[in-house]
Amino acid sequence: MQLSKPRADSTDGIVIASTSAAESVQAARDIAAAITRDLRVKHGLGPEALAGLVCFVCAAYDAAAFAAEIHRLMPTTPIYGCTTAGELSLEGWAENSVVALGFLRKDFTLVAHLMEGMSQFSVEAGCESVSEARAALMAHDVGADIEQCFGILLIDGLCRREEAVISALYTALDDLPVVGGSAGDSLNFNKTWMIRNGEVFRDAALLLLFHTALPFRLFKCDYFEPTTQKMVVTDADTELRIVRELNAEPAAAEYAHNVGLIESTLDAASFASHPVLVGVGGQYYARSIQKVNADGSLSFYCAIDEGLVLTVAKLLDPYESTLATFDRLEAELGAVSLYIGFDCVLRRLAAERQQISQKLSELYRRRRVVGFNTYGEQYRSMHVNQTFTGIALGRRPIDEAKQP
Question: Domain coordinates of the chain in residue numbers?
Answer without folding.
Answer: 7-218+319-401, 224-315
